[in-house]
Known about the structure:
Strand content: 5-15%
CATH class of the largest domain: Alpha Beta
Strand order of the largest sheet: 9-8-7-10-11-12
Radius of gyration: 22 Å
Number of strands: 12
Helix content: 40-55%
Number of helices: 14
Shape: elongated
Order of helices and strands: EHEHEHEHEEHEHEHHEHEHEHEHHH
Distance between the termini: 18 Å
CATH topology of the largest domain: Rossmann fold
Structural class: alpha/beta
Amino acid sequence: MYVGGVRGMERRIVRPADMPYRELMVRSLRSGGMNAHLVLDPLRLGASVPQAWWLLGRWRPDVIFSTGGYLGIPLVLAARARHVPSLVWEGNLVPGRATAAVARWADRVAVSFPPTLEAFPGRSFLSGTPIRSFERIDRVAARSSLGLGPDDRLLLAFGGSQAVARLTAALEGALERLLEGWQVLHVAGEAGMASAERARQQLAEGLRDRYRPVAFLTDGMAEALVAADLVLGRAGSSTCAEVTAVGVASILVPYPYAGAHQRENAAWLAGQGAARLVPDGELDAERLLQEAAALRDDAARGRMAAAARTLGRPDAAERISQALVEMAGSAA
């Protein structure tokens, strides 16, 4: 069973999977400024605790898995009261406030970055971040499907789920010079396609085919990551996990808000030689060209890719599911 909140995309994603879905009154606390939600959100959170208690009593689960956040608070509290074991997963290097609170009541905590183990001593284990599988994707075939030759170098640019205006502006400003050494596959998002297409049309005819903007890649994203020689993107947990699982060099530009969690993610990878960190405020066309030129060298890029590969944990979903099965078995 999947339990979601009143504000989120869970219902739309889970329903087609034919999985039982239930909804709590709580919602993620992202309201800004002085408004009615400053009063209503704590009330919703409080009302969700007995709601979760009733739900667990009716369904009687053997174990609960939570990705933390405010939705996890009523669920894990209710699970503790009903003696149902719970596992909380934290994807960022620095735990968010809500997840840190939830984890205090959880039986075990799975983390994605080694330093995060220190935040939950005695109950945590290193799982990594569950990601899509890259197992059966052949790099030669993936590159061939994109029309790449042996001497071509592909830069894959995407911004994850956060605002990407900074990345887009830097990319478009650098595009003409960047394309002299790279082919660029740009996941621009639906909102960014008009601007990307205009930038493409302004290119000299000989460069136009070297720049391919697309709104989304969906199922093709795994092949694009395997085919890429360099990634330009944000530093969310999933992006960090995928570039290390694939073993590809990356320029990470952390989203500067949301507690600056992404900066710590990127800083740790950069400290291991597995990525280049460029602060959001420092990314412009010239800085992008500088970073891309340094990584156009195959040897330098190869060292970074090898360092990234040593940090990859492509079996994260299996590690977490194994822990859940063990917890359910011990509680039976």
